[in-house]
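Q: Convert this sequence to structure tokens.
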Amino acid sequence: MDHKEIVKSLDVDLRAQLTKKSDRTGLKHLAAHFGWILVLGCYVAVGAPFWWLAVLPLGICIIFLFTLLHETVHSTPFQTPWINTAVGHLCSVLVIVPNTWFRYFHLAHHKHTNDPLNDPELETPKPETLRDYVWHLTGLPYWRSIAILLFEQAKGNVAAPYLPARVERTVVWQARVMIVLYCIVIALILTGTSWIFWCWALPIAVGQPFLRAYLLAEHGLCPPVANMFENTRTTFTNRMVRFLAWNMPYHAEHHAYPAVPFHKLPLFHTVAQAKLVSTSDGYAAFHREYMNSVD
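A:
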């Protein structure tokens, strides 16, 4: 059975249970995630003993808000639409990913997952050599590409096969607003507001390699086929990673049934686990396999 057959086989009650959204559950998780950011950020900001040791976990906590941004694209973390929208825009600014552009980019990725001709994620090839793999994990290629993307969008160059003409103006203005915001942040840092650098700019830079490593596992080494249980990987990991990534290590399940909110993915996993094809026993295991696959 492929992912479509699994979803079709669900009875009405189970389908309703799996797709039920919850503001309470989403806001509870959001408060916990931002709570860790606040605690670690304050620890760094006040220069507490060994504060520099907190910079990396702070960066990981902030940069993994990307997974929440990703969930808001599907409008599943919260039941109330405006909460999804507001949280999505906040995360967009914090992790430097333009919101509206990413929505359509990501939905096209879902429609054409791992299709070499149509999946926009594959416009940036996966690393094929050990050198490319290490360079990819530094996060530097990502920062370069997102900077180019923002400036091109701000100039009005937004044409893409997955981007409807009706949202192009919105994409342009979002890019311009984001650039202005980041210029203000840079000016504040340069004029003495150093806590922004230590509590946001530096942390997301050192946290980015961990997000790159996490994201590579989602579809890396998966075949270009239509079955979501094959072209997408579920990675078995610990509760901390699942918490930070909003349960997205259950990624094959998410692609098979995107309407399932993050807190219901463990339940859907119990339904689909026997049909999963691409899995890894942890991120270390995946990356060992990936390093063995490159030249």
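The first helix runs from residue 3 to 9.
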